Amino acid sequence: MNAPHSLHPGVNLDVTHRESHAKASEVIFGFWIFLMSDLVLFAALFATYAAMSSQGIAHGPTPAEVFDLGSAFIETLLLLLSSFTFGFAILAMKYSTSRTRLLGWLGLTAVLGAAFVAFELHDYYVMIETHDAWPQTSGFLSAYYLLTGTHAVHVSAGILWMIVLAVQVMTLGVNTPVKLRLLRLALFWHMLDIVWVGIFTFVYLFGVAT
């Protein structure tokens, strides 16, 4: 079996575009290394939050007092659905000759991501207005805002990246460089989804339960 048939760098493009499939191997491998380094950052933030959520309450509110589990659940559904729509965008990139279908799925993904960020900003507003829960109130709240805020910044960066790629699809077409960029963005987006599932479980569910 020759090399192009044996490589599966994220998505197997060999059946539709062998050139993109062959070039993706090295590029996607390098991007996986970047993602691992980004996950180290989130691991450090999780560890900081784990310590502060139990030892850094001070005289401020506890996690159970400030977290809105319903809102966090909606945010989780939005981000999970955005990963689902991004999957359809990648399938459209692989099989469809129509740019409209690809752009439609990318646009829907961006809207869902923006809605996620909007819900998270609303949570911050409610926490501050209702519970006077500012980042400087306690170590727990500092760690919470830093962890969730870093994730929100990553999602916002992903949305901007998506917009740039949508412009490239419209101007350059779905050529090999654009396909490789879309594959990298897909990995980045799905990574953020996995990180958020960890945040929802470890921060919100565990925080409310205790």
What does this structure look like?
It is built from seven helices and no strands. It is mainly α and 210 residues long. The protein is elongated, with a radius of gyration of 20 Å.
Beginning-to-end CA distance, first to last residue: 55 Å
Please write the string of helix (H) and strand (E) elements. Answer: HHHHHHH
Ranges where pLDDT stays below 50 over 5 or more residues in a row are: none
Oligomer: single chain
Q: Look at the structure and give the mean pLDDT.
A: 89
Structural class: mainly alpha
Number of helices: 7
Query: Shape, please?
Result: elongated
Percent of sequence in beta strands:
under 5%
The largest pleated sheet is described as: none
- Percentage of residues in helical conformation: over 70%
Tally of strands: 0
Radius of gyration: 20 Å
Write a short abstract of this structure.
The protein contains 7 helices and no strands.
Characteristic key phrases:
about 210 residues; mainly alpha; about 85% helix; single chain
Write the layout of secondary structure elements.
Blueprint: H1 3-6, H2 18-55, H3 63-66, H4 69-95, H5 99-131, H6 139-172, H7 176-209
Helix pairs in contact: 2-6, 2-7, 4-5, 4-7, 5-6, 6-7
